[in-house]
Amino acid sequence: QLQLVESGGGLVQPGGSLRLSCVAFGFTLDNYAIGWFRQAPGKERERVSCIARSGGTTTYVDSVKGRFTISRDNAKNTVYLQMNSLKPEDTAVYYCAARALCMSSMGYDYWGQGTQVTVSS
Question: Is the pLDDT at 60 greater than 90, yes or no?
């Protein structure tokens, strides 16, 4: 079965850190750019970061620049999102998704089921 599985979410205090993982099953991640998205209750889904197939190009939404770092380990078929200096407004369900290019008008081929991140004291 072809799927993406996220893990690493949880409850963390403001200023804390979490590392999310996105693992591919049934296909090879190095053929895809991977985006991390988040959706908070009552808000639209937004893409917070993306990493190209080679890992050489990364993008971030302004609100997470300098705090989040996306990386990939193609040997482990895994993409990571390191989240530091977390804020309450980072609270959301985080999803990873795969497609050929970060910058594209095409939809994403695969989506994970999401992992909850809650930032609260």
Answer: yes
